[in-house]
């Protein structure tokens, strides 16, 4: 039996990669799902058409997570369509690298990364809370990079994910009295277009993974489904590393 039947979920950055895996899993668990995308309209529509075969409602919305006004509009659209929002998954993310001493670093890109990875989650949470009642779930998708920096050049990215972890713990305190849980999942090496298992650096990166292989988007999606369900009602402020033992 679907564990989330009748629930309403909003997933930011849900048209591809880990986000699409999360949207698919929540729909298979019976939730009506809205998700945002920026440029992958075709993939968003394909995902919508595929999941509506499950007899759930699926609502793709074009919105830039790093833009507060666009997120506010997207959240209102979800609330108008479904009446409330039970689950928020902050999945949008950018991965931009560059060493601190590199003369040609694009500061504008780093600022955009911070806007999406950190401010975007803040915007989404603040916008969603008026429509989220007791038993609500907020699930942030971080990265093992928020806890460790195994190679040079990922300082800015790692800082955004560490900040998201700090926000998670703080929001768990802020919202505990409302019976809303807030947790963060930190994926390790997940096979996506952004970081394929057959990429040029995959063999080197796998040396740090205890299980010796990449994970799949479904591994993250399954953890999201668990945190969104009733079995996780007493878990809040937690960090779950889904990384094959990379951080051990």
Automatic annotation (TrEMBL):
Q: Which SUPFAM superfamilies match?
A: NAD(P)-binding Rossmann-fold domains
Task: State any single GO MF term.
Answer: oxidoreductase activity, acting on the CH-OH group of donors, NAD or NADP as acceptor
Q: Which Gene3D superfamilies match?
A: NAD(P)-binding Rossmann-like Domain
InterPro entries per UniProt: NAD(P)-bd_dom_sf (IPR036291), SDR_fam (IPR002347)
Taxonomy, superkingdom: Bacteria
Q: Which family does it belong to?
A: Belongs to the short-chain dehydrogenases/reductases (SDR) family.
What PANTHER family does the annotation carry? SHORT-CHAIN DEHYDROGENASE-RELATED, SHORT-CHAIN DEHYDROGENASES/REDUCTASES FAMILY MEMBER
Identify this protein by name. Oxidoreductase
Q: Can you name the source organism?
A: Flavobacterium akiainvivens
Q: What is the lineage of its organism?
A: Bacteria, Pseudomonadati, Bacteroidota, Flavobacteriia, Flavobacteriales
């Amino acid at each position: 039996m679907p564990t989330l039947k009748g629930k309403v979920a909003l997933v930011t950055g849900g048209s591809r990669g880990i986000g699409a895996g999360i949207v698919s899993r929540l729909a298979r668990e019976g939730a009506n799902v809205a998700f945002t995308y920026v440029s992958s309209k075709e993939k968003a529509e394909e995902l919508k058409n595929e999941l509506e075969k499950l007899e759930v409602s699926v609502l793709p919305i074009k919105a830039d997570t790093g833009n507060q006004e666009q997120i506010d509009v997207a959240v209102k659209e979800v609330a108008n369509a479904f009446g409330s929002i039970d689950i928020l998954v902050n999945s949008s993310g950018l991965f931009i690298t560059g060493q601190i001493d590199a003369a040609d670093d694009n500061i504008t890109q780093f600022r955009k990364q911070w806007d999406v990875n950190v401010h975007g989650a803040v915007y989404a949470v603040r916008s969603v809370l008026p429509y989220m009642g007791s038993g609500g779930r907020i699930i942030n998708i971080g990265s093992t990079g928020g806890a460790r920096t195994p190679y040079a050049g990922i300082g800015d990215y790692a800082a955004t994910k560490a900040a998201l972890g700090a926000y998670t713990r703080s929001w768990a305190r802020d919202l505990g009295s409302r019976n809303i849980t807030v947790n963060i999942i930190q994926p390790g090496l997940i096979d996506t277009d952004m970081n394929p298992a057959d990429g040029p650096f995959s063999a080197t990166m796998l040396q740090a993974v205890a299980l010796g292989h990449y994970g799949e988007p479904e591994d993250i999606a399954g953890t999201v489904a668990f945190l969104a369900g009733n079995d996780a009602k007493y878990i809040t402020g937690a960090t779950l590393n889904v990384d094959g033992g990379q951080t051990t």
